[in-house]
Amino acid sequence: MSVTGRCLCGEVSYEVTGDIVATAVCHCDHCQRQSGGAFSVNIVAHASQLNVTGTLVTYGDRGDDGGDTVHVERRFCGTCGSPIVSELMGTDGVIAVKAGSLDDKSAVKPNVEVWCEHRQPWVDLPGMDVSIDRE
Ligand SMILES: [Zn+2]
Ligand SMILES: [Zn+2]
């Protein structure tokens, strides 16, 4: 299967090919800050499955521990700021494509949620098979 998506302004578009690993909701503080929303919805796949057209800007997210190690490379459109994909460092290329940027959202069905300790108090999502406090 393959899915396509784009940023708000259209300068960046992409295709994800092959089977995805999972669709995961992330409640972490940094996803909330980056998206401006209550949580992020992520198509989890491998970097080799993603084909991007256009130029993404990368922010090296160092996480909450205040150290120098980049835990997540967050990539977004430099023109409109839409988050497109995050790459998890130290995982051999696991990526999280932001489901809000998909062209066809009819197949999006998250069943995993992570970083529940940062979940906003009003959020109670249906259909979750796995809920994990941290990542
Ligand atoms: Zn854009
Ligand atoms: Zn997150």
If classified by CATH, what would the architecture be?
Beta Complex
Segments where pLDDT lies below 50 for 5+ residues?
A: none
The CATH class assignment is Mainly Beta
- Calculate Rg over CA atoms: 14 Å
The CATH topology annotation reads as Metal Binding Protein, Guanine Nucleotide Exchange Factor, Chain A
Give the rounded overall mean pLDDT: 95
Number of domains: 1
Shape descriptor reads: globular
Give a written overview of the molecule.
The chain is mainly beta. The protein has a single domain, classed as Metal Binding Protein, Guanine Nucleotide Exchange Factor, Chain A. The protein is 5% helix and 40% strand. It has 1 helix and 11 strands; from the N terminus they run βββαββββββββ. It has an 8-stranded mixed beta sheet. Strands 1-2-5 form a 3-stranded antiparallel beta sheet, with no helix packed on it. A hairpin with a 5-residue loop joins strand 7 and strand 8. The longest helix has 7 residues. The chain starts with a strand and ends with a strand. The model has no long low-confidence stretch (mean pLDDT 95). One zinc ion binds next to helix 1.
